[in-house]
Each structure stands twice: as C-alpha cells, then as structure tokens.
Amino acid sequence: MDIRDKASTGMSGIDLAIDKLRLGDNVVWQVDSVTDYKRMVDRFVEQSKRDNRRLIYVRFGDHEPLLEDGAAATTYRIEAQKGFESFATAVHTLIEQEGRKAFYVFDSLTDLLQHWHSDLMIGNFFKVACPFLYELDTVAYFAIIRNAHTYGTIASIRETTQLLLELYRVEGSYYIHPLKVWNRYSPTMFFPHLIRGEEAVCITASTESAELFSSIQRGGERLDYWDILFQKAREALAQAPEKREATKRLLMSMMIGPESRMSELCDRYFTLEDILAIASREIGTGFIGGKSVGMLVARKVLERDGQERFSPYMEPHDSYYLGTDVYYTYIVQNGWWKLRTKQRTSEGYFRHAPELKENLLRGKFPEKIREKLMQMLEYFGQSPIIVRSSSLLEDNFGNAFAGKYESVFCANQGTPDERYEALEQAIRVVYASTMNEDALHYRMNRGLFERDEQMAILVQRVSGDHYDDHFFPHLAGVGNSSNLYVWDKSIDMDAGMLRLVFGLGTRAVDRTVGDYVKIVGLDKPLRSPLMHAEDYRKYSQHDVDVLSLKENTLTSMRLEDVLDVDLKTDKELFATQDYETMQRLRELGYSDRSAPHMLDFQKLLGATEFPGLMRDMLALLAGVYDYPVDIEFTANFTKEGLFKVNLLQCRPLQTRGLGNSVEMPTADRVRNLFFEIKGNFMGGNVRLPIDYVVYVRPESYLACAEQGKYAVARQIGLINAAMKGKSAMLIGPGRWGTTTPSLGVPIRFSELSNMSVICEVSSVEAGFMPELSYGSHFFQDLVESGIFYAAIFDGRDDVKFQPARVLERPNLLLFPHSEQLSDVIHIAKTDGMELFSDIVSQRLICL
C-alpha cells in the first residue's frame, strides 16, 4: 500500500500497534468517559494539523466540546433533538459537501441517547454514516461510552467500522485493546497495550492480562436505553404526583411526538398508567404516529368526559403499534439509506421514489422485530386484522393525509407461516405507500417536503363477526361533527352527519364503483337528500365489502347474498323490502321472485339510539378538540338490538367554515347565467371570481375509448399545473377521481389540486352521475385544499345549466399533443365570471 494512504493517530506507539490508520478508516473508541476520548482526539488533531489535513468537527453532544473554536477548519453544529432522519440527512449532506480525504472528529455517539432514547437508532446512524465516510477516503473518530449500550448496538458498530478500540484507564495508566482492525494483522495486534509516553507496550503475559481485565468493571447484557427508561417509569408510579407528571411528559415526547395541539390534548387526558399501557403494546421504538394517537385520545375523551354516556356502547380495542424506528431500521438494514437520501432531495424527490417503492416491497425485517411480530400474531390468533398507516404527521391539525397511505386487511387464515408472511407483506405495502405519487404531491403541495414523515403502523383487530364463510361488521362509516354539505336550509349543520355503509368501511372512505353510501344528517336522521323517488334504489348501496375467510382475502358480495345469511340480529335494522321493484318484476312475468331489499337504514335511524349516540359523540369530541372532527367507526348489533360502537379513528376535520353571508346577484345579472342550483354544493358562503373554465364535454368524453379517457385525465393534469396561481373552475361528467372511466374522469387528486372550483355534472344519457362524497378521502382533499365543490344534476326542475356560455368562447387548449382532445376538453377565458353561494338559502349561482 502507498505510504500516502496511511495516516497517524498522533501517537507512534498506537500507530505501531495497529499499523497506522488508512484513508477510509472509521475509528470507534469505546471509553469510560468523554475526557478519556478527548485525550485521544487531542493527539489526532495535533497530528492532522501537522500533516495539513482538512479537519472537520461534528458537534452534537451535550458534553463539553472536544475542540476549541478555531481548532478545526470547519465546525458543524447539528441538532440531534430533531430526530434520526433529520440528523442522519444533515450528516450525509456535510460529508458530501466536504468531499474526499477530510478528517473528522465526532462527539460521543452515546449523547444521542438523550434525544433518540434508542440504542438501535445509534447503530442505524453509524451504519449509514460509516460507509459514506469510507467511500470518500476520510478518517473519522467516534466514541461510545462503555456499558451504556446493548450488545446488539456494539455488534452493529463492530460489523460496520474499520477499527474498534477499547481505551481503559486503570490506576492512572491508559491501555488500549484493539477489538477490530480491518485489513491488517500482526501477531500482537489484538493484545492489550499499555500507553507509556509515546510507546504502546504490548502485554502478552497471561498474568498481566488477567490482572488488567479483572480490574475492569464490565456490565452484563444491557437493556436498550428505551427499555431502561420505561422500567424507571414504572417505578415512578409509586412516587409523588409531580414526579409522575414529569415522567409522563418524557415518555410522551418519546412516543407521541413534539409539542403540538395534539400533544396538549394527550397531556390533558393521558395518565402515566395510560402511557405505560400504550408502551406495553408497542413493537420496536419511536413514535406511534398520528392515527394511533388520534384514536387513543378520542377514546380517552369519551371515557373521561362522557359521564357513562358512551361506555355501555363502546367496543374495547386491543391494538398494537409499530414504532417509527422500525421503519428507519427496515430501510437502513436493507441497505437503502443512500437511495432514501437521494429521494429526499428536490431533484430526486419524484425521480427516485419508484425505485425506493419497489425496494420497500421486498425487504427483510430484523430478527428481533420478526419475533415480536410473531408474538403479536399469536395474540390475535386467527382473528382478521387490519394493518394501517400511522405516520407522524397523519391525522394532525392541518394535515389529515386522508387516503394517501395504504391500509391492508389481513383475513389472517392459513398456517402460522402463511399468516405471518401475509402480515409482513401488509407492513411492506404500507411502508411502500410513503412513495405513492399522490402522497408525494400532497407533501409537496402542503409545504411538508422537508419535514420528517416518520411512518409508524397501527394494527387493529377487525371489528365484526363470522357469518358463514365471511367476516364483517354490521355497520361502518365516517362521521363529521360539522355538516357543511347541506341539501335543505332547515338542516342543523352543527348536528353533524354520517356517511354510512353496511359491511366493511372501505365504501365509506372511497368513491366506490357503481355504489352509493347513505348520507345521514344527525339533526333529523330520517331526512333524505333531494332526489326523485325512483332514484332512491339506484343511488343506494348494492354490494357489501367483506373478508372471505375461505379465500383469505377482501372481497365484495351482492347485498341479497349477504342478507340471506343469518346476521345474528334483525336485518330490518339496515334493509327494507323494495315492493315497488317487486311489483315491476311481477309485471314483467317474474312472479316467483321474492322482493329485493334496499339498504335505507330506516329502522336503525328511526327506532334505535344509534343516531343520537353518534351525534353526542361527535359533539363532545369537537368540543374538546375546539375544532370540527372526523371519525371512522364500526357498529355491531345483538339479537336483542343492543349495539357496540368501535371508534377506529379521530382527526381534526379541515373545513373552510361558513364565512360571512354573501349578497346574491340581482335579477338583471342573472340574465348572464352559466348555472344555478339549489343545494348539493360544499365550501361555505363564497363570492369567487373565475378566470378560466376547463370543461370536459360529456358526449365527447363518452365516445372516447378507455385509453382515451385516461389520456383526458393526464391532459387535465397538465392543465392543472398551468393553472397554479389562477382562479379556475373544472367541470366534467360524473365523478372526478373515480378509478372507473365509465363513471367519470379517472384523475388523481394531485391533477386537479390547483383548481378553485370543481363541478360534477350528471348526464342521464351517458350514465354519468355525481356522488355526494362528503366524508370520503376525496372530500378531505377538497376541504384541505380549499376547493369549492358543486354537483350539477342537469335536467332537474331546480337546476339551470347553460354550458354554451363557455363553449361559445375560443378553446385555449394549447398543450403539446392536445389537438386530438380539443373536441373533449374546452378551456375558456372568462370575462368577469363569478360564483356566488349562500348556505342559508342553499343557492349557488355562477354568472
């Protein structure tokens, strides 16, 4: 090896013992104190200066500085309290900036425990920093305090570093004991050495070695720092209230997150016992994420402030949580951190996401995590479970991330190995969903690009029961404490609303192909949205989502097939027989058929305590949050008609509010009408100027082949990008954001996110029908982005719609390869168009 590839420790005896340092070496000193480490650092720094090395000091510890100001060419101060990802990314960036052959001194890694509370994450940090330093031919000094870390952490560091050196101080003398010296060897290298002046005297005699090592205090197997803190916290249960509160807040900072409105709620409602109970069900370390926190604190509010109103009706939960550190460990230990770092840059944000997503779907979990996951699966037995995203920013004030990340049902049938593999794959799918395009756009558009979006996971037992070979709850849905989507001026918006389905709740949170949910205003639950009598059956739920235990998967069944099964309660709570349809069937000669059922929930809403309970629940939660809330729930009934509600999720509902009343246009202005409707809009009282209208012609769109319909969606995405900063209205047939082109335009929300207004227009001839999707993930996106929504039921007596007002203007569709779509998409520059809405009168007018 070229002598120029070698470097000195600053002590000739140590250089001789380890055959000097090599460019690329990471040197980890295991010491009893930072003072001892500083002794080695001082000699290394002095030598580096003599050799004209470029010296970098990375300062992050709480201990006294290792180098005085000016002693290094550059000192970087990095805030460890911001968390693993922020810290590791900052270190990666500075190493990249400093380039090749820089020499580094890092503070003691043990000080990171004060901020990360996890030995595992220190090992992870070293695993990502060390290879990059090696790659750039640097020499870097690190330290860890002896007996402060688990064997696993030491093993991880030993595996990754080039040199691991023990430094002992015994009766005033210093000894070094090389444990690992990579890529060189001598017969005496791994003996202890006494430091005497510049010399390192090798101790080969067994008597001296035994005497030395017997005088050194060695700890046994050490618990992870995380476990030690929780062990001490249990002891605090018997201490004074002030001590318990201080301990609770420490644990909350480790599991709930930094100070925020949500953490304030948690502090008000959680006791130390509550936090310890949550910790007992956490796998790994780190935060449990926003979805888990929202569910837990909402349940605590109902329990504590409900004064026995809710407890008789609440189904208990026995959820588990995978901490955010498991997500980072999965990435680090599978060797993807460098790719992750590239993806976090502005240039690589979208570019590297697909590759990282593919990797996340095929990684391996550490053995300790696998053991814990298996224990959790043994606990649940063969009960179906759902694996849900619970990122740090999810379900918080300001950012709901509704529907951006995956949730995966596990029917949980088969052999233990088969069930375990399905669980692991479900976790991989949730992790991979962090790289979904919609999630990336959401983060970018919400100004969260540089925020750590740490992914935890919530594992819940699926609520419901076995019905033959299927599993499902009787009811599921979404509840909102504020009902801004009113269709009748007499509706009490503060009473809240439900978006209700029979079976699993997938249909309540997504816009489902060919199906409609039940919208319930909780002031008068039996009131129905305005529609013609013959439409009630058409625009109701026809299929039911269930878990097939036989097929071991999520599937859908026809309503009639589900109702043929013994539901273990009164089916008339949910469905009534449709005698009008039966009469028409008989007129057509089908006299042998029984009357089909229609899911109208009439008995549930009119003869049970369910709607009143849900109204009270939403009101209490909104009052405590001091903010409108959005919940997800299930409900199950007994033969006697008793029921239990399972509160699955609660988050702040981002609404635009009512605003001040708007003076509606006078009769002379209405002559320039574009459209006017009664009800069926959402967005409060507004007067909005409209500069552009982007109109998708229903007949032309219908004539497109399926591939052409997707091309229309992608073209609108380009138009959306061009409309940023402008006031634009998007109008199209059927449902925006559907996955089925025959029902509307299959557009992603990120492809319409810059619009000020979107309108869904019905077309009876073409079979397009808007869906009043209040409460769905699509709705969440609209209200968070401040997009006004309207459904135009063209042809109804109370609807006036004159698309010619727009179509008679020149088409400004001037995008590459857009010529073939000019008969489908029409972009018109308006001349002073305005949109007026009034909640009280339920009028919406566009001139």
From TrEMBL:
<feature type="domain" description="Pyruvate phosphate dikinase AMP/ATP-binding">
    <location>
        <begin position="288"/>
        <end position="667"/>
    </location>
</feature>
<dbReference type="GO" id="GO:0005524">
    <property type="term" value="F:ATP binding"/>
</dbReference>
<keyword id="KW-0808">Transferase</keyword>
<dbReference type="GO" id="GO:0016301">
    <property type="term" value="F:kinase activity"/>
</dbReference>
<keyword id="KW-0670">Pyruvate</keyword>
<dbReference type="InterPro" id="IPR013815">
    <property type="entry name" value="ATP_grasp_subdomain_1"/>
</dbReference>
<dbReference type="InterPro" id="IPR002192">
    <property type="entry name" value="PPDK_AMP/ATP-bd"/>
</dbReference>
<keyword id="KW-0418">Kinase</keyword>
<protein>
    <submittedName>
        <fullName>Pyruvate kinase</fullName>
    </submittedName>
</protein>
<dbReference type="Pfam" id="PF01326">
    <property type="entry name" value="PPDK_N"/>
</dbReference>
